[in-house]
Specification:
Blueprint: H1 15-28, H2 33-38, H3 42-49, H4 52-62, H5 64-77, H6 81-93, H7 105-118, H8 130-139, H9 141-164, H10 176-183
Length: 184
């Protein structure tokens, strides 16, 4: 049985948790199912929220689309339906069909690195992907370290969602007419 979102709007909710949830709602416009579950543990919520400045720094370097491509590669390889749907929707918001697009040179490198991050442990015995060297030469070691750190946090996010069975947010579910067309 999945863990339900913390009821941060109840009268018994901790004031600290209410402040965190309110700040999240102000930042993102809502509290997702994942963030709602994380509210059960303030340190866990803070840990998973701490990655946002790192993500923003990568967006400044690679662009939002490329970071979403990278995140989708990790999410799909780690079989996290919730995260995969989230990043597929993000790509669609960029005007990209997640099933039919040509990645840029940087995006192709990010996909290669994302596959490595989400790979089974045995794959990590091989040398690092060539994309690491290519991106280091183009963007610097600091950027590559930030990228792999963010990707590792993305993998942890995927594992959190799948391990706890966090329900898919309603807005990530396909519209009924899309689901009906897909089933036909």
């Amino acid at each position: 049985m999945p863990i339900a979102s913390y009821d941060w709007q109840s009268e018994t909710a901790s004031p600290d948790i209410v402040r965190l949830a309110t700040a999240e709602q102000d930042r993102a416009g809502r509290v997702t199912n994942m963030k709602g579950v994380l509210l059960h543990s303030e340190p866990a919520f803070r840990l998973f929220s701490a990655v946002l400045p790192l993500k923003e720094s990568l967006r400044a370097t690679f662009g939002a689309r490329a970071v979403d491509v990278f995140s989708l590669a990790i999410s799909e390889d780690s079989h996290c339906l919730l995260c995969s749907l989230y990043f597929r929707r993000a790509l669609k918001a960029h005007g990209v069909d997640p099933d039919a697009y040509v990645p840029t040179e940087d995006e192709a490198a990010l996909i290669e690195i994302g596959h490595r991050i989400a790979a089974e442990p045995a794959a990590h015995r091989a040398p690092p992907p060539a994309a690491i060297t290519a991106l280091r030469d183009k963007h610097g070691a600091e950027t590559v370290v930030a990228l792999v750190a963010y990707g590792s946090a993305m993998l942890a996010t995927n594992r959190l969602n799948t391990t706890l069975g966090i329900p898919i947010d309603d807005d990530l579910m396909p519209a009924p007419e899309v689901a009906a067309a897909d089933a036909a």
